[in-house]
Amino acid sequence: MEKKNLYTHLLILLVLINLSSSLNVPAIFIFGDSVFDAGNNHFIKNCSVQADFPPYGSTFFHRPTGRFTDGRTVADFISQFIGIGLQQPYLEAQIAVMNGSRKEYPSKGLNFASAGSGVLQGTNKGWGVLPIQEQLRQFKTLIEQKAINRSVVERSLFFLESGSNDIFNYFLPLDTPKLDPDAYVEAMIKEVTNLTDQIYKVGARRLVVFSLGPVGCVPARALLPAAPINRCYGKMNAMVKKYNKGLESLVNDIPTRHPGAIGVYGAVYDTVQHIRAAPTRYGMIFMEAYGFINAMYNNTFDRAGFSNVSSACCGDGPLGGQVQCGKEGYKICQNPQGFLFWDYFHPTQHTYELISKALWEGKKSRIRPINLKTLTNLTLALV
Ligand SMILES: *[C@@H]1O[C@H](CO)[C@@H](O)[C@H](O)[C@H]1NC(C)=O
Ligand SMILES: *[C@@H]1O[C@H](CO)[C@@H](O)[C@H](O)[C@H]1NC(C)=O
Ligand SMILES: *[C@@H]1O[C@H](CO)[C@@H](O)[C@H](O)[C@H]1NC(C)=O
Ligand SMILES: *[C@@H]1O[C@H](CO)[C@@H](O)[C@H](O)[C@H]1NC(C)=O
Ligand SMILES: *[C@@H]1O[C@H](CO)[C@@H](O)[C@H](O)[C@H]1NC(C)=O
Ligand SMILES: *[C@@H]1O[C@H](CO)[C@@H](O)[C@H](O)[C@H]1NC(C)=O
Ligand SMILES: *[C@@H]1O[C@H](CO)[C@@H](O)[C@H](O)[C@H]1NC(C)=O
Questions:
Q1: Rounded to 10 degrees, what is the CA torsion of 224, 225, 228, 229?
Q2: Is 166 a catalytic residue?
Q3: Residue 198 is assigned to a structural domain of this protein
Q4: For residue 62, what pLDDT is reported?
Q5: Percent residues over pLDDT 90 in the chain
Q6: Residue at 376 is within a domain
């Protein structure tokens, strides 16, 4: 099975690697949760999962955009690496098209991600978030309305990242899950399989599926009575790994299940664990010991490294994980770029940047079977 898939990939690559350097990807369509949300939730009435207030966005945009970090997300960085610029939240573009301030939807793609959502339709439903199935329905509607060109869809990248909220919620004491962990993960994978099937059906040929990061290490675990504070929550990470494994085998099956399509698996979990294990590798080794030098230079020194990989830069309570950044009583660190986590659930822009670089031009231990740079350069023969 494994061998056959690899062979299929090779076959496609041999025929289709494009030796020119023309831009083969006109657009990116993004589906998922708060890791990717660029502001959709802000436009959902009564949605209580928000990051549309300060100090979100303070490092890069210098204003809140609805992104759940201090700057750009992985989707933003990859768009910039490709050279097509950032994708607007779909709901924002929709308002602009409706009110006439915009003639048509942007040609470089759209971001449908909704923070708080999961791959299971019931996840955080009461908070007004848009499940990923609903995000896909919105996209399909645009295709049906011919607001998005099928020839664009066929050449575009499709980003899929979801599942953290389903797994985190599994451990909420008030939610009493009826399924055992394995069956729960299986149900999640079934939903993702259905999603990728649907995305293929409407014409997508380049699917990028991102694994979950180590959700059991987020500062927000301090909200869970059963989770340890001084180390990651092993039970949660075990479930995440199982889900990621399922995602990867789903991705491996894409070329055989969907002729003409390519699936790429981004190993975000391993990339983040690598950073956590050797934070200073990503900066200057003396940074921690001589933190005062850094302070003298206005914290510009540690731009490349991490001094804190456990607590949130912005929040309050144990690990900074019990109060959302920007909410009453929050505290903020002086050097977000030195922190792996920005708020209780989410990485800083610095972390996202490192992950993005690993996905863009990393080795197979980071992204496989090919990295995003190679994927972007492929010309796919349309089947
Ligand atoms: C891939 O595309 C980029 C531009 O997007 C170009 O700089 C690079 O040379 C291309 N590489 C190959 C191998 O085609
Ligand atoms: C939003 O919440 C208010 C008050 O709870 C309710 O009256 C209103 O119908 C809700 N609007 C939507 C669009 O759900
Ligand atoms: C139309 O919607 C866009 C996006 O929300 C907004 O920026 C713009 O001000 C609106 N224009 C009018 C005329 O209402
Ligand atoms: C769709 O794309 C093709 C090729 O880029 C172009 O010729 C055509 O005009 C586009 N159609 C619409 C409705 O944008
Ligand atoms: C996905 O699941 C829905 C029901 O939730 C079903 O109606 C649909 O046919 C499925 N789509 C595919 C492509 O399997
Ligand atoms: C640190 O920042 C302050 C205020 O922005 C500036 O006046 C000072 O020159 C900076 N110091 C260094 C060493 O860059
Ligand atoms: C990380 O930052 C938090 C909050 O500023 C602090 O309480 C904690 O001691 C720091 N941990 C390390 C290892 O520096």
A1: 70
A2: no
A3: yes
A4: 98
A5: 81
A6: yes
Task: Tell me how far apart the alpha carbons of residues 156 and 179 are, in angstroms, rounded to a whole number.
Answer: 37
Mutation probe of ligand 4 site: the residue of 22, 144, 145, 151 with most atoms within 8 A of C-beta? 151
DSSP 350-365: HHHHHHHHHHHH--TT
Full domain range(s) for residue 270 = 11-277+363-381
pLDDT confidence of residue 277: 86
Contact call for residues 158 and 204 (beta carbons, < 8 A): yes
Q: If you take atom 10 of ligand 5, which residue's CA is the nearest one?
A: 194
pLDDT, tens digit (0-9, with 9 covering 90-100), for 173-214: 876 667 999 999 999 999 999 999 999 999 999 999 999 999
On whether residue 5 sits in a domain, the answer given is: no
Check residue 287 and give its pLDDT. Answer: 41
Structural domain tally of the chain?
1
Residue at 377 is within a domain:
yes
CATH of the domain at 375: 3.40.50
* pLDDT tens digit sequence for 29-56: 999 999 999 999 999 999 999 999 999 9
Helix (H) or strand (E) holding 132: helix 132-144
Round to whole Å and give the CA distance between 114 and 49. 9
Q: How far is the CA of 238 from the centre of ligand 3 (A)?
A: 45
Residue 169's nearest CA partner among 212, 232, 217, 215 is: 215
User: What does DSSP assign to residue 87?
Assistant: P
Ligand 2 atom 10: the closest Cα is on which residue?
46
C-beta of residue 199 within 8 angstroms of C-beta of residue 208:
no
